[in-house]
Design a protein that fits this description.
single chain; alpha/beta; Rossmann fold; Alpha-Beta Plaits; 2 domains; 6-stranded mixed beta sheet
């Protein structure tokens, strides 16, 4: 069953001069994680705002748990959670006060809000800091609290828009652990990210978007297979570069490339381990010493570069903030 469906979404700004979404379509299976991967300005945040009822598309259709996000936004808000790129918490209040306040905004009774706040503070390992003002929290603690606030109503569907933006590696790993825990509990999750390793770690399925359109979709392994199979990479001394390339191409029957600055030779191979062993044997026979050698699969970085073919532009101002008059 599809928990989230977006069909041919179009969103423009500046009277059509900026096209944030250009016919974007995607869906999320119930109980799975869809990673939406793309550079700054690709349309990730605009997509999340439309699906979470904060913004209306110019055209297209979207639904969450079978509910139309345009025709019945109030019903959608009752079943979703949303955590944006920056922690939406009041720094002057304590963590406890923030969660109780969010509970009351969701129309929980005072008692229900307090009980839920206690549960979430424990779940996110924030109990010891519960009575401290948010301004004393680290970046990772703020992000965990913001995510906790999005779970006040135990949502069926959760939208996380670049949840680890600005975190150091340790904070990012902590957030990954929290997100993986939510997935084990059965939450359907749409996660936007610029971090390729984040999509690789968390997502069951990945959508790559660029310039407001979906340009690829598949599992991490499926996307990597689009780029090609494994590659042999070997570093040799300068005076051995050409001889080494001749051997590698003869053994692998492939076309090798040379990075002369790094003294590295690279070639795609269909049978990685066997080809690597054969190359090493030929090197030994020829008296060529490999300074470094590796057998590598394509990474999501390789996939993204192959698919987009350009450096991402900076975030458009319209992508970074809602337009005046957008539904809150």
């Amino acid at each position: 069953m599809k928990s989230v469906i977006a069909e041919n979404l179009v969103k423009t700004y500046r009277k059509g001069a900026v096209r944030a979404l250009d016919g974007l379509s995607l869906d999320v299976e119930e109980g799975t994680v869809l990673g939406v991967l793309g550079p700054n300005g690709a349309g990730k945040t605009t997509t999340v705002r439309i699906l979470s009822t904060l913004l209306e598309p110019d055209s297209g259709h979207a639904s969450v748990a079978g509910i139309d996000v345009i025709k019945n936004p109030k019903a959608v808000r009752q079943i979703i959670g949303l955590s944006g790129q920056y922690a939406a918490v009041d720094e002057t209040l304590t963590g406890w006060d923030n969660l109780v306040m969010f509970g009351q905004l969701y129309h929980l009774s005072s008692t229900q809000a307090k009980v839920r706040a206690t549960e979430l503070l424990e779940q996110f390992s924030l109990t010891d800091a519960a009575r401290r003002p948010i301004k004393t929290f680290s970046g990772g603690m703020r992000r965990r609290l913001d995510l906790a606030a999005s779970l006040i109503i135990r949502p069926k569907v959760l939208f996380l828009d670049e949840p680890t933006t600005g975190l150091d590696p340790r904070g990012r790993l902590e957030m990954w652990g929290v997100i993986e825990g939510l997935v084990r509990e059965g939450v359907t999750l749409l996660l936007t990210t610029q971090y390729l390793e984040e999509a690789d770690q968390l997502a069951d399925d990945i959508v790559v978007i660029d310039q407001g359109r979906v340009i690829a979709r598949g599992s991490s392994d499926e996307l990597k297979d689009q780029v090609g199979g494994e590659r042999i990479e070997i570093v040799v001394a300068d005076n051995n570069l050409e001889s080494a390339r001749e051997i590698i191409e003869r053994v692998t029957h492939g076309s090798a490339t040379i990075d002369r600055g790094l003294r590295k030779i690279s070639v795609p191979v269909p049978d990685g381990t066997q080809s690597l062993i054969a190359v090493i044997r030929e090197f030994d026979s020829a008296g060529i010493h490999a300074l470094d050698l590796a057998l590598k699969r394509p990474s999501l970085d390789d996939v993204f570069l192959s698919l987009t073919g350009h450096v991402a532009e900076e975030v458009k101002s319209e992508e970074a903030a809602p337009k005046k008059g957008a539904r809150k």
